[in-house]
C-alpha cells in the first residue's frame, strides 16, 4: 500500500475522515471537509456530483485509487468516496497527490 493510503489510514484512526456518499456530501455541505477523494471506479454521476459540489464549496477533490484501496485504507470493504476533515492531514495528502501526478 502506498504512502497516500497509509496517510488516509492514519487520518481515519485519528477520527478525521468520513466515508460513504451521504456522509461525504454532508461534510462538504457543512464545510467540515478539507479534501474529498473519489474512487476511479465510482460512477460518472458520483464523480460529477462531488466535482460540482466541491467546486461550489471550494474544497479540493481528487479522483484517486480503487474502491477497494479507499475502503481498506479506512478499515471498510469498499468506498467510492472519502472526505478528510482535518486541515493538516488534508494538506499532507494533497502534497502527496501533487507529487504523485
Give an overview in words.
With 101 residues, the protein is of the alpha+beta class. The chain is 54% helix and 14% strand. It is built from five helices and four strands, in the order αβαβαβαβα. It has helices spanning 3-13, 21-29, 44-57, 67-73, 87-100; strands at 17-19, 35-38, 61-63, 81-84. It has a four-stranded mixed beta sheet with strand order 1-4-2-3, with helices on both faces. Helix 1 (3-13) crosses helix 4, helix 1 packs antiparallel against helix 5 and helix 2 packs parallel to helix 3. The protein is globular and about 30 Å long. The protein starts with a helix and ends with a helix. The model has no long low-confidence stretch (mean pLDDT 95).
Fill in the keyword field for this structure.
101 residues; alpha+beta; 4-stranded mixed beta sheet; 5 helices; 4 strands; 14% strand
